[in-house]
Amino acid sequence: MAIFQARTMLYRSFSTLSSHPLRVCVVGSGPAGFYTAEKMLKAHQEAQVDIIDRLPTPFGLVRSGVAPDHPETKIVINQFSRVARHERCSFLGNVTLGSAVSLAELRELYHVVVLAYGAESDRVLGIPGEDLFGVHSAREFVWWYNGHPDCKNLDPDLKNTDTAVILGQGNVALDVARILLRPAAELATTDIASHTLAALEESSIRKVYLVGRRGPVQAACTAKELREVLGIKDLCIHLQEADLLKTPEDEEVLKNNRIQRRVYELLSKAVTTQPSYPRSGQRELHFVFFRKPDRFLDADERKGHVSGVQFEKTVLKGVSDGKRIAVGTGQFEDLKCGMVLKSIGYKSVPVDGLPFDHHKGVVPNIRGRVLYDTSGDPTLLEEGLYVCGWLKRGPTGIIATNLYCAEDTVASISEDLDQGVLASKSSLPKPGREGLLHLLDNRNVKVVQFSDWEKIDSTETRLGSLKNKPRDKLAMSEELLKAALE
User: Which of 15, 199, 291, 415 is the most exposed, fewest CB within 10 Å of its CB?
Assistant: First the structure.
């Protein structure tokens, strides 16, 4: 436990000390982690920054979350690689917080620990049938098609059904729909995982339903993502014209929100320019609004497999501050399908010794400073412990959002150093990287450094060149470690 107390003595700011480097550990090598490292290196010339990650591969969701047909979004990897090669920075992969090293141990080894490991679990609906075979989270599906080792063996059944239902209408939901509906030949030249491409080439999926609790005015996607999925060639778009009817409240939203207005216009245009019925064998994308899932239906002929979703129709009801929520009407309808992907939000997971707000799914903090508990009392701080990214603010925003988030957290660290809050700790030497590597070596942890990652990178790009792909991802931990360390 560390409690913030006003100090009567002003300790020397660490920045005046040249004898001992400021030891900083960033947990998580996604955008939040790398932006934090970059900002710390620039702000503190005496800082040595170590980025640890449980995977042998760096870059977090840039590698495992960004869709394979969005290579332009992954260009930021070049910037992160420059950070990792900085003389005062190191990447240490295959190091799991909680098993390879505890949070308490990191805090003993480093002056500053910044947790930026994101959200690696999923929100649940808590409705009957959620554990049926064929019901997956969109995160699992995204990790599967991006070659994440955790989901290499997900093996979604794309052969025994022609219909998939996606719950949610945000950008992740649209990514998933696009991967299911785009011709496999178009994906063959991307860095999509080979096991996924093979499954998509034999896929029987012809209909995808994107289902939302609210209406088209409230759709959570961006115009860019929507335009892309609507532009898939030879795709029939379905949308009930009645769902496009606007209330006065909707008109107000559209007047004041350019993004929502553009999304609504794209959906309206799709209805008026599309033929009413698909041709034989043509793939279909159905936008379904004002429905919330009530239960997943078990198949009669394949017990334990999902055969559909029962939905309750909804209406929007005003609550406080002009906000409107979807409430059930008591009217139900079934939608038959053989696969369901839940795109209802990611969820962060706590580690031992870390205060955690289970309701909000974040670490309680003030501008990145970790609080001792969820009371919000700003005087109860975990000294030297900070947070950034989704773990700090929840799973929202784009890659660049983490840049501003990192700036905010690093500003808090700098203030604490300047004001002497960390001086009692930072004026004393800490083992940092050397101490961590010694500890991991004693525990027989195979650490993957950035030069080892570059061997993986070289192997993947070489294998990809044989298939006319930018890279052919190694999707098993054993393969990755072999490429890195042998």
Answer: 415
The DSSP 8-state label assigned to residue 75 in this structure reads G
Separation CA 328–CA 213 (nearest Å): 9
Whole-structure pTM value:
0.92
- Residues in CB range of 428: below 8 A, 6 or more apart: 20
Of 91, 109, 171, 111, the closest CA to residue 139 belongs to 171
- Minimal CA–CA distance to 118: which of 342, 405, 349? 349
Top-confidence residue, 424 or 52: 52
Q: Which residues contact 393 (CB under 8 A, 6 or more apart)?
A: 362, 405
Nearest alpha carbon to residue 210 among 239, 245, 169:
169
The percentage of the chain sitting over the pLDDT mark of 90, rounded to a whole number, equals 85
**What secondary structure does DSSP assign to 453-480, as a single string?**
HHHHHHHHHHHHHTTTSS-----SHHHH
The pLDDT-based confidence of 139 (bands split at 50, 70, 90) is very high
Query: If residue 417 lies in a helix (H) or strand (E), which one and from where to where?
Result: helix 401-418
| Tokens found for residue 268 | 């309206």
Contacts of 341 (CB under 8 A, 6+ apart): 136, 137, 138, 141, 164, 165, 166, 167, 173, 176
Residues with Cβ within 8 Å of residue 139, at least 6 apart in sequence:
121, 122, 172, 346
* Whole-number Å distance between alpha carbons of 406 and 36: 5
10 Å CB burial of residue 105 (0-12, 13-18, 19+) is middle
**Cα atoms in the 13 Å half-sphere on the side-chain side of 382:** 28
pLDDT in tens, 190-229: 999 999 999 999 999 999 999 999 999 999 999 999 999 9
Q: Are 384 and 425 in contact (CB under 8 A)?
A: yes
Q: Give the distance, in angstroms, between the CA of residue 427 and the centroid of all CA atoms in the same chain.
A: 37
- For the chain, state the CA radius of gyration: 24
CA distances for 326 relative to 109, 221, 249, 250, angstroms: 49, 17, 14, 14
Helix (H) or strand (E) holding 185: helix 184-187
Contact indicator for 135, 304 with CB cutoff of 8 Å: no
47 in Cβ contact with 24 (< 8 Å): yes
Name the residue type at position 182.
R
